[in-house]
Design goal:
Blueprint: H1 2-7, H2 12-29, E1 44-48, E2 51-54, H3 55-72, H4 78-83, H5 86-106, H6 113-121, E3 127-128, E4 131-132, H7 134-143, H8 148-169, H9 176-186, E5 189-198, H10 210-219, E6 225-226, E7 229-238, H11 243-246, H12 250-259, E8 269-277, H13 280-291, H14 296-302, H15 307-310, E9 311-315, H16 317-323, H17 326-332, E10 344-346, E11 349-359, H18 366-398, H19 403-410, E12 415-421, E13 425-427, E14 433-435, H20 441-446, E15 454-459, E16 462-472, E17 475-476, H21 483-511, H22 516-519, E18 529-534, H23 535-543, H24 550-556, E19 563-567, E20 573-583, H25 592-621, E21 623-625, H26 627-638
Antiparallel strand pairs: 1-2, 1-21, 3-4, 5-18, 5-20, 6-17, 7-12, 7-16, 8-9, 8-11, 10-11, 13-14, 15-16, 19-20
């Protein structure tokens, strides 16, 4: 926001609308990439410190982003997404994420497994009756087509981001005087008119010559090019394949209970809060303030910590030692309820802990938890057996066995798919298009067809034997096969060009002072629409998810007395936008708006500062992009022909 405010205050709302749209897109994109512990495949698209962004990372996120966006825009395709800049946004998100991971590792920052466990357990969607439920957890992961490793990697990245960015963002402020001009701008009123110039109102361009048609076909070859398509066969399998073998014995269930009694309340649990300060003197002053009557949370807030930052949740002695360190755990478990510890030193600084609740050891009876343990052991054993099945299948395929033979050995049916584009489009002999939902497609297009059949992971405990049987390169459809379609498109373009020329003529006349009636004399056009708009209302519409017509936005960006031309949606024609009057806003009419704008600017300033810090991290760890490799992947995704 600050960037466009510096550039041009006259385009404030128009760019705000764009910013909101991009923000929503970023939100859909920022999903966890392939887990760091898994093998990554494909060519390297960028090196980031000691890490790499691979083709597999990129394709996985693009596919997930397109699928999510398709829930709002069912007709969106890979070319649409890449063309709108979605691919570049995905790549930048991956680079930023890996840069922060590399920077954190180089500076000794680490996220323990217990910290991640705590985040997962605290997610309300994963809870049943107020407690974490493993079955609900795995069901939701399956619905979102996420593996547990992917989720854990995402949470680890989020915790690292918090640790890195929170100190940077603390204390961001904007003076009230800076907010007043923008509040005044929001209250500005503009009056003018919008004249539609429909393409349909233009004269019939007639029948194109053969030369015109050939030239149009050549100029728009991307529109008439079939993307790369792949045919394949596959056999899917999941945990049900090994379900019977995975059931534990009664003795196994009892042994697990006895070995892990602490997990069932057999160990004292303490609710712990912690603050870590770099300076010993500050740490001692913090302890003195709390013991003097100041609330622990209030004292922590004064040092820039939120409630979420200091809350470690319920901890056993062993769990706290693992999550923080043994010395802090020892100090915490020596305290009385409500007491605060002396500062405890570590490599991170000086730890001060407070115990807010003590729950004595009280193990739940075996009979009440045996079913829970059985489910857990079954899931773990099934995962192990499934991993063994996957490894065995991979060995057999590598050894030369066919997909059909391996599938038969596992009792799996083999399915075949016709040649599909990466976004699921199917083209018949007459070049008619239909779309098939096929979750395997990202894996199909990641695969190297020359490597033969392989095992791919589809989601949590879901796999498939996969073999690409044919690869059809991008193909320009000959003109004589689609002549009628090209003629129609040529006529539409010709009428649109004529409408644009007429709109530009009228706009030029209006900008020179000619009246609208004089500029349109003798033209069979729809009547112009008079409009009075205020920036504030349009901003509120945008924030509420309502779409503001581009022609209305153009009124905010057009100088008084001038006219501008803008295309109508879906190629229907053009609009001539004329601004007749601009009435400046008066903040005295809405003094509370200044505070609201100031708060918005503070948030945006923090976001911009955080973004600048991430860019600095990227420079620190070193980022090397491979644009040609990215272009090659995008060509495959969009079906573009390499020049």
């Amino acid at each position: 926001m600050l960037q466009f405010l510096r550039k041009s205050v006259s385009s404030w709302v128009g760019i705000l609308i764009l910013g909101l749209a991009l923000g929503a897109l970023v939100f859909t994109l920022f999903q966890p990439p392939a887990p760091g512990g898994q093998a990554q495949s494909g060519q390297v698209l960028a090196t980031v410190g000691d890490r790499v962004v691979t083709e597999s990372d990129y394709l996985t996120l693009v596919d997930r982003a397109v699928n999510r966006e398709r829930q709002r825009t069912p007709t969106i395709t890979n070319p649409d997404f890449i063309g709108a800049g979605g691919g570049e946004m995905v790549l930048q998100q991956l680079i930023a994420s890996k840069a922060m991971q590399s920077f954190a590792k180089a500076n000794g920052m680490a996220i323990s497994r217990r910290m991640v466990d705590g985040e997962i357990a605290s997610v309300p969607a994963f809870q049943l009756n107020g407690k974490f439920d493993d079955g609900t957890f795995r069901r939701l992961l399956a619905e979102q087509r996420l593996t547990e490793a992917e989720l854990r990697d995402s949470i680890e990245q989020d915790l690292l981001r918090r640790q890195l960015l929170q100190p940077v963002l603390a204390g961001t402020t904007i003076p009230r005087g800076m907010a007043e001009p923008f509040a005044q701008l929001l209250l500005e009123v503009r009056r003018g008119s919008i004249l539609p110039i429909p393409s349909a109102a233009m004269p019939d361009p007639g029948k194109p010559t053969d030369a015109q048609l050939k030239a149009f076909h050549a100029e728009n070859k991307a529109a008439y090019t079939l993307p790369e398509r792949r045919a394949f066969r596959f056999a899917e399998f999941d945990g049900t394949l090994v379900a019977e073998k995975a059931k534990p014995t009664a003795a196994d269930v009892r042994k697990y209970y006895d070995d892990n009694i602490a997990d069932f309340g057999g160990a004292e649990i303490r609710a712990v809060r912690q603050v870590v300060l770099r300076d010993e003197a500050k740490a001692k002053a913090f302890v003195a303030a709390v013991r003097g009557g100041k609330g622990f949370a209030d004292a922590a807030s004064a040092e820039g910590f939120t409630v979420a930052d200091i809350d470690l949740g319920d901890q056993t002695a062993a769990g706290l030692a693992d999550a923080v360190n043994p010395q802090v755990s020892k100090a915490a478990f020596a305290l009385k309820q409500g007491a605060v510890s002396e500062p405890v030193q570590s490599d991170l600084g000086w730890h001060i802990v407070e115990v807010t609740r003590i729950s004595p050891a009280a193990a739940r009876p075996f009979e009440t938890v045996s079913a829970e343990i059985e489910r857990k052991l079954t899931a773990e054993k099934a995962a192990d057996l499934l991993a063994e099945t996957v490894a065995s299948a991979e060995d057999k395929l590598t050894g030369g066995e066919s997909l059909a033979d391996v599938a038969k050995g596992l009792g799996l049916p083999v399915q075949t798919s016709p040649a599909l584009a990466a976004d699921g489009r199917l083209f018949d002999a007459d070049f008619q298009v239909s779309r098939l939902e096929q979750p395997l497609l990202p894996k199909v297009f990641e695969a190297d067809a020359s490597e033969g059949p392989q095992v791919v992971e589809l989601g949590p405990n879901r796999f498939a034997l996969l073999e690409v049987t044919d690869v059809l390169a991008p193909e320009l459809v000959p003109l004589d096969k689609i002549r009628a379609d090209v003629e129609l498109a040529w006529a539409v373009k010709a009428r649109s060009d004529a409408a644009k020329a007429e709109a530009e003529r009228i706009a030029a006349a209006l900008s020179k002072g000619e009246t609208l009636a004089a500029a349109t004399t003798g033209k069979a056009l729809p009547p112009a629409q008079s409009l009075s708009i205020r920036r504030l209302e349009l901003t509120q519409m945008s924030q509420q998810g309502q779409q503001v017509p581009p022609a209305v936005v153009m009124m905010l960006n057009t100088p008084k007395g001038q006219a501008r031309v803008i295309p109508a949606p879906q190629g229907q024609g053009w609009f001539v936008v004329k601004v007749d009057e601009v009435i400046p806003g008066d903040v005295a009419q809405a003094p509370q708006l200044v505070d609201a704008v100031r708060q918005s600017l503070v948030r945006e300033a923090g976001d911009e500062l955080g973004e600048s810090f991430v860019r600095a991290i990227e420079r620190s760890v070193g980022v090397v992009k491979k644009p040609e490799a990215v272009k090659a992947v995008n060509r495959r995704l969009t079906g573009a022909i390499a020049e």
